[in-house]
Amino acid sequence: MKKAASAVGSILVIAGSSLWIYFHHFAAPRINVPLHQAVGRVMAEETAKLVDNRGKIVLIAIETAQDAELKVQLEEFEKTLKKFSGITVAKTYMLETENRAKYGTGSGLSARRFIRIVNKNTAADALVSFVGAPELKDEEIGQLQARPKFIAESRSVAKLENPFAKRLLQVAIVSRFQFPAPVEGNPGTLRQWFDKRFQVVTAESVGALPTAPAE
Q1: With the C-alpha atoms ordered 136, 141, 143, 148, is the resulting torsion angle positive or negative?
Q2: Could you tell me where the DSSP H helices lie in the chain?
Q3: The whole model's pTM is what?
Q4: In angstroms, rounded to a whole number, what is the distance separating the alpha carbons of residues 139 and 154?
Q5: Which residue has the higher pLDDT, 190 or 97?
Q6: What backbone phi and psi angles, to 5 degrees, belong to 169?
Q7: Alpha-carbon distance 53 to 85, whole Å?
C-alpha cells in the first residue's frame, strides 16, 4: 500500500510540474481578445478614411511571437482592410526586436527608422505604425523625400503634439486618458470595447487631452 501511495504521489508531482511548465512557458497568455480586435479594426477603418478608401499603404510593426496583443490587432487589421478593395499593402516592415525594451505595441519607432522607411516608399499614400510615432527635429524632417499620410498606435499622447504640429501625423489610436468613457458597464461590441479603453486622436483634439506619461 505504501508503495502504491508513493507511486501515486510521484505521478501527481510529475503531473503538477508538467502543468506548471505548460502554463508558464507554452500556454497562450490571457489577453482581452475583443479589445485588441477592436483596436485592429479601428486602425483599419481610420486608415481607410485617411486615404479615401484607396491607395498603397506601408505597414510597420514588430514580430508578434512574443506579443499576443499585437498579433490579435494585426490579424483584425488585415481582416478589416480586405473590405476596402481599393487599398493595398505595398510593404510590411517587421522591425527587429533584439532589444525588447525598445519595441512594443504603441512604442519604439525612431526618427531614423521612420525617415528610412519613408524614403524607401516615396509612392506610398500612407504609413500605418503599430509601434508608435517618432518625434522629428526640423533637420530630420528636411531629410524626408515624401510626406505620406501617417496613422499610428501610441501608448500615450505625451509625445504626439510635435508630430501633429509638424503635420507628420494625421491620426493616432491611443489608450484612453479622457474620462468618463462614453461606454458604461461591460461592452457588447468591438466598437464599445474600443471606446471604453481607447480613443482616436487628431491634431485638433490632441491639445485638449490630459497629459499622460511618456512612452
Answers
A1: positive
A2: 2-21, 33-50, 68-81, 111-120, 138-141, 161-165, 190-197
A3: 0.81
A4: 24
A5: 190
A6: -115, 135
A7: 8
| pLDDT, averaged across the chain | 84
DSSP assignment letter at 22: I
- Find the mean pLDDT for residues 135-140: 94
Report the C-alpha gap between 168 and 189 in whole angstroms.
Answer: 32
Rounded to 5 degrees, what are φ and ψ at 87? -105, 135
User: What pLDDT shows up at residue 1?
Assistant: 54
For 40, 118, 155, the CA distances from 190, given in Å and listed in that order, are: 10, 32, 19
SS3 143: coil
With a cut of 50, say whether residue 21 has pLDDT above it.
Answer: no
Amino acid present at 179: F
Q: Shortest CA distance to 200 belongs to which of 49, 95, 55?
A: 49
Query: How is residue 193 written as a grid cell?
Result: 470595447
> Looking at residue 128, what DSSP letter applies?
E
Segments in 104-172 forming alpha helices (H): 111-120, 138-141, 161-165
Residue range 70-84, pLDDT digits in tens: 999 999 999 999 999
Say whether pLDDT at 57 is over 70: yes
Closest CA to 145 of 168, 164, 122, 170: 122
